[in-house]
Amino acid sequence: MKPRKYLNNRDLLKEIHKSKNSYSSYVQEVDEQYDIILPNIDRVNIRTVAQAKRNRADRLAKQAHEDAVDRGEKVKAIDFAINWKTIDKQDLVFRIMTYDHIPLQPGRKKNPKTTADLHIACNFPPYQHFRFNDKDELECVGKSHWIGGMANGYFSNDHGKMTDKLARMFMKLVERYATRSNWRGYTYNDEMQSSALLQLSQIGLKFDESKSQNPFAYYTATITNSFTRVLNLEKKGQNIRDDILEQNGLMPSYTRQFANEDAKR
């Protein structure tokens, strides 16, 4: 087998999915895996059903190929291709992004602008899973931020957790980013890493799969912002220290000395 990269979007998405499932409740275990994400239930139509079938066929084919490769078999991906038209409609699971099951919290936002502002704050965009029953009707088979049955369960925002593997991925991502040439020379590099890890632990599950399939870029941007924030705070503190040293006739930092020399030139 070819060695995998230290991090990739596929593995990140898998761990994000597992982490969100720990905050969710489903009728059956098979209802955890969705085939398509839609903004509302009205978008379930002939076209989206066909797309969901294609997505499911591709996912099952890729999984079968990966399992065969892991077993050491020399096979081609095309050997596991599945005709999407053979997928049964009742097997499809639709993830619908909705706040219908999230309790309202009036006054949480002074000037609410979105639907989310009217409800209790969640650690990731809430959703429900739907599946066609024998009567060709959509019925709810899963809810995020939920404990218990679909009809007799209750809302919960803190019973799940991020997987250990996703946490290790965040640590590895931050460590690798901190070794870049434009960051590794700072004496407060450790503080930058700590700030980035804290930020990732807070917003790590807020990644919305309905808008992007590239969590690597999302997390890298978060780390960049955290590093830059610490850098700006340190520069501000250094400028204050240099001002005090110069006012008292003492030698400021080398950075200030070089800046003063450049100004004189």
What would you say this structure looks like, in words?
The mean pLDDT is 90. 21% of the residues are buried. A hairpin with a 6-residue loop joins strand 6 and strand 7 (154-155). By secondary structure, the protein is of the alpha+beta class. Helix content is 42%, strand content 10%. The strands form two sheets. A five-stranded mixed sheet has the order 1-5-4-3-2. It has helices spanning 9-21, 46-70, 164-178, 189-203, 215-247, 254-264, and strands spanning 24-26, 36-38, 94-97, 127-132, 138-144, 146-147, 154-155. The longest helix is centred in the last third of the chain and has 33 residues, at 215-247. It contains six helices and seven strands, in the order αββαβββββαααα. Helix 3 (164-178) packs antiparallel against helix 4 and helix 4 (189-203) packs across helix 5. The protein has two domains: 23-155, no CATH class; 164-264, no CATH class.
Side-by-side strand order of the widest sheet = 1-5-4-3-2
**Radius of gyration from the CA trace?**
25 Å
How many E strands? Answer: 7
Beta-strand level of the residues, as a percent range? 5-15%
The helicity comes to 40-55%
